[in-house]
Design goal:
Layout lengths: L11 H4 L8 H13 L5 H20 L9 H13 L4 H20 L26 H16 L5 H16 L3 H5 L6 E2 L4 E5 L5 E5 L2 H19 L30 H11 L5 H14 L4 H8 L4 H4 L1 H17 L1 H7 L1
Antiparallel strand pairs: 1-2, 2-3
Helix pairs in contact: 2-3, 3-5, 6-7, 7-9, 7-11, 11-14, 14-15
Length: about 325
């Protein structure tokens, strides 16, 4: 991740696109704080900016400023979101953004009281994350593996197989996968180092199929893709890290998040990269993994985020109960 020594180095795409309102300067300062002090990635900063802009527009409609908004304005904003059909998860994310913003203002002594205190967060995870059945994941991986094992398999088939295996084996986010460098691999130990949200690093273990797919891609696929690089300039890895990006495009450039989505969709039209992440966690819980282990694997800051997978696994628990418990069997007959 690229580090900025002062606010002037931050890309204009992150800060300068905030509209000129009474609250613009305050929001620019906060976004700069998130980028420089908290180390958040550009996409996260963009999301915070959108949420703050939406709240700023709401309070301006109430003839207020961000620094003068109180409990009533924040409550009214949440009610406004609910009245316009915003999902509870999205509303909870916006409230979390406001809590961080007003905590920053309070610590900076720009306000005397946090207006988000004693506000109940909208029910989160009301819509459970969708996951694939083990048979669906196996079908995706088997088809990718057959293509990669073919005697005439090209670099693209080897790369795609490694990507799908890694998404499911490690439960990676798309941004984490595209950010991987060759130097992050420790295949002899069966693990990789991943940089997640807030640039937090974690070690993710991999199974034998994923390790073998990556090894084959590194040996036969990636060198061929490197040779296709159109520019004669040497590759400079993003974020100032040593090494170069692990997964490359047909032109030898780092893959984009959008392309990873396209790859997964082309393999299974009902799937998505994040669905493979959910599937990884769900299948682990169904096979007896404890929540702390799953939390560590996925890089969740709060175990409450991981607890949703107990609800997903509950369906399998009920099915096993109906199948094997004498009274449960009798009840459904």
């Amino acid at each position: 991740m690229e580090l900025y020594q002062d606010l002037s180095q931050i890309p204009s795409s992150i800060i300068d696109r905030v509209p000129e309102t009474h609250n613009a300067e305050l929001m620019r300062e906060y976004i700069a704080y998130l980028r420089v002090e908290k180390g958040l990635r550009p996409l996260s900063c963009e999301a915070y900016k959108r949420d703050l802009l939406q709240f700023a527009e709401f309070v301006e409609g109430e003839n207020k400023l961000l620094v003068s908004a109180g409990h009533a304005e924040v409550s009214g904003f949440l009610a406004h979101l609910g009245n316009h059909g915003v999902e509870s998860r999205s509303a909870a994310r916006k409230l979390s953004c406001l809590r961080g913003f007003y905590r920053w203002l309070l610590l900076d002594k720009r306000i005397e009281r946090d207006p988000t205190i004693n506000l109940d967060s909208p029910a989160s995870w009301k819509v459970l994350p969708k996951s694939l059945a083990p048979s669906e994941v196996n079908d995706m991986l088997e088809r990718a593996g057959v293509a990669a094992d073919h005697s005439e398999a090209d670099a693209i088939a080897l790369r795609d197989c490694a990507i799908l295996e890694l998404l499911y084996a490690g439960g990676l986010r798309v941004s984490e996968l595209t950010g991987l460098n060759v130097a992050d691999l420790s295949l002899d130990a069966g693990r990789i180092m991943v940089r997640g949200k807030g640039d937090k690093e974690r070690i993710v273990p991999l199974g034998r199929p994923a390790v073998e797919a990556i090894e084959k891609y590194l040996a036969q696929g990636r060198p061929a893709l490197q040779k296709r690089r159109t520019s004669g300039a040497p590759f400079k890895p993003a974020f100032g890290l040593s090494g170069s990006k692990l997964f490359l495009s047909v032109r030898g450039e780092p893959l984009t998040r959008q392309w990873i989505w396209h790859l997964v969709k082309s393999t299974n039209c009902h799937a998505s990269p994040h669905m493979l992440r959910h599937s990884c966690a769900t299948h682990m819980v169904e096979h007896g993994a404890d929540l702390r282990t799953v939390q560590t694997l996925l890089g969740h800051a709060d175990i409450a985020t991981t607890q949703v997978y107990t609800h997903l696994a509950l369906g399998r628990l009920k099915a096993v109960h109906r199948q094997h418990h004498p009274r449960a069997k009798r009840a459904v007959e």
